[in-house]
Design brief:
- This protein has 2 domains: 295 residues, no CATH class; 129 residues, no CATH class.
- It has 557 residues and is of the alpha+beta class.
- It has 14 helices and 27 strands.
Length: 557
């Protein structure tokens, strides 16, 4: 790939990413990913360990022959994400298996089926005749959810509502989603995993003009000019890598079964008023009143993007530094004369010179060069003739919100009279620098460096990951548990665990075996949790544990 220019560069190939790209519209777009495969399905344990979507991977037992979803989830047949896939036309090329059963499993290992048809409702033992009639009246629209809740006995209410809601905090949304899917199969799962959906969506997007590049060596740089242009000035600067910090939204799980999982304990306690451990399964529903407005939209809205943020996500507030010449406070980009009277300014700490970072520029002609002292990185401000315009080329650290990565690319003057030795420590040669300067002057604010060539973009929609509170344990086992394919909320006495069982018809494991996913908030799934499901070690082929990384979406706009 030769150097290419685009309006938007988009980071990520998850299913939700591909749907978002399809909705971008008329802009010339390129999608990039620091992975050699689409999506987050992994057939190899080493690839899972290196994935940005997980952390803290533990392998208790492993045998090849099954694939792992880094972000396991199920789809509602009438849910928002599945409808988006249907509208995109990819369901014509994708196969799904039906998750036939939905259970609530209690700490005594007893399980109760959540009904999805009137036939199942009649066969459900924990409903009495009157309660079955009430549910029918609800389905016919003759009563609302509050009336149903008030008239159900405690046992039925405890089983039904906890089986539907589980550890979700938005009770109303979960109940409405359940009712919207009544009469349909509970859940769906891609037969070939979510990577297959990502690939099909990407093909569809490519047919509409979207470009794709997958390269594990991709680097992203922001391009920004500071100061005034001067035909004689030559300056070289060096900058640490910076992180994009503007959060647009966290990726939302698409269905009730795996929704609202990325919540801290404090966030949940703030909303519910108490911790899950201190809340009895029945009592938590007693004070809940459900909005009867049928037109309510149960889907979560994305956060608005603040227009007060720059492309690094830092707030555009005035940052001042102390001038060591005349002891006055000046803004970080100052065009007022300091009255230095030929004196050399004192040295400034690096943190005072940069915000995003941007260089201090004075009306009195100066030159800024980098010097290293034993006491730390210090920038010196010295006199020089002529104004300057500095092109800051700064690497953006994305993929993780933890820490900063050292970065050795210098920031360079926009004037083109350079020598190759000036840039010997940088990532670009003199020819590349000239091309970068030309593109930056034409409004391209970002450079994506790949093994296939340089990509320039006016806008960047990036993503980073941070550890969530969700822990996963995935097992490949020889024998089925309750059913071959089911979803369940398992209550272990203190917290809920989400359980998903799929068989070899999903093509995710060897013939005659099963894959079990267990998702738990705030702590790892331990062996005591496995005992509640009666999983015996002799039947375990593979056993892997990891923590999910929450995916945060950022925009330069």
């Amino acid at each position: 790939m030769e150097d290419s220019c685009f309006d938007i560069a988009f980071h990520g190939t998850l299913v939700e990413d591909c749907v978002q790209v399809k909705n971008i519209g008329k802009y010339k777009t390129i999608v990039f990913d620091r992975s050699e495969e689409y999506g987050c399905t992994f057939d190899d344990i080493e690839k899972l360990k290196s994935s940005r979507y997980v952390t803290d991977v533990e392998v208790f037992k492993y045998s090849k022959g099954f694939s792992i979803e880094a972000l396991p989830m199920v789809l509602r047949p009438n849910g928002k994400l599945f409808n988006s896939l249907r509208e995109a036309g990819v369901n014509n090329f994708s196969e799904y298996i039906v998750i036939d059963h939905h259970f609530l499993i209690l700490e005594d290992s007893k399980y109760y089926r959540i009904p999805y048809t009137k036939t199942q409702l009649v066969d459900t033992a924990y409903f009495n005749f009157k309660e079955r009639h009430l549910v029918n009246k609800l389905l016919e629209g003759e009563i609302n959810l509050n009336e149903l809740k008030d008239k159900l006995c405690d046992k039925t209410k405890r089983i039904l509502f906890n089986g539907i809601v589980g550890d979700n905090t938005d009770y109303e949304a979960c109940l409405r989603e359940y009712l919207a899917n009544f009469g349909s199969p509970p859940f769906l799962f891609p037969k070939h995993g979510y990577r297959d959906i990502s690939e099909n969506l990407s093909r569809s997007n490519a047919m509409c003009g979207t470009a794709y590049v997958l390269d594990k060596d991709i680097k992203i740089y922001s391009l920004a000019f500071n100061g005034e242009e001067d035909s004689t000035a030559e300056c070289i600067f060096k900058s640490d890598a910076v992180e994009i910090k503007k959060e647009v939204s966290a990726i939302k799980e698409p269905s009730i079964a795996f929704s609202n999982t990325v919540k801290t304990r404090h966030e949940r306690e703030q909303r519910t008023g108490s911790s899950e451990e201190d809340t009895e399964l029945l009592e938590r529903f007693n004070s809940v009143r459900i909005n009867s407005d049928e037109s309510d939209d149960i889907s979560s809205d994305n956060e608005d993007i603040s227009s007060d943020n720059d492309h690094t996500g830092q707030i555009n507030e005035k940052i001042y530094t102390e001038c060591c010449v005349n002891n006055s406070r000046k803004s970080n980009i100052c065009f007022n004369p300091l009255g230095c009277d030929g004196e050399t300014a004192e040295r400034y700490p690096r943190d005072h010179l940069y915000t995003t970072p941007k260089n201090i520029v004075y009306n009195k002609p100066v030159d800024i060069s980098l010097n290293k002292e034993k006491e730390g990185d210090i920038y010196f401000v010295k006199e020089r003739s002529g104004y300057k315009q500095v092109l800051c080329i700064t690497e953006i650290v994305s993929g993780s919100t933890d820490g900063r990565t050292p970065f050795n690319t210098p920031k360079m003057d926009s004037h083109e009279s350079y020598t190759s030795s000036d840039y010997s420590k940088g990532d670009f040669d003199i020819t590349q620098i000239k091309d970068i300067i030309s593109k930056a002057k034409n409004g391209y604010n970002f450079l994506i460096s790949s093994n296939f060539g340089n990509i320039f973009s006016k806008s960047l929609i990036d993503s980073a990951t941070t550890p969530s509170n969700v822990f996963v344990r995935v097992l490949n086992v020889k024998e089925k548990l309750i059913q071959k394919r089911f979803f369940a909320f398992l209550y272990n006495g203190t917290s809920f665990i989400r359980v998903l069982s799929i068989d070899s018809s999903s093509r995710c494991c060897r013939e005659g075996t099963f894959v079990i996913y267990l998702l738990k908030n705030d702590s790892k799934v331990d062996d005591r949790d496995l005992k509640l499901l009666k999983i015996h070690k002799c039947n375990v082929i593979s056993d892997v544990s990891f923590q999910i990384n929450e995916v945060l979406r950022y925009s330069s706009n």
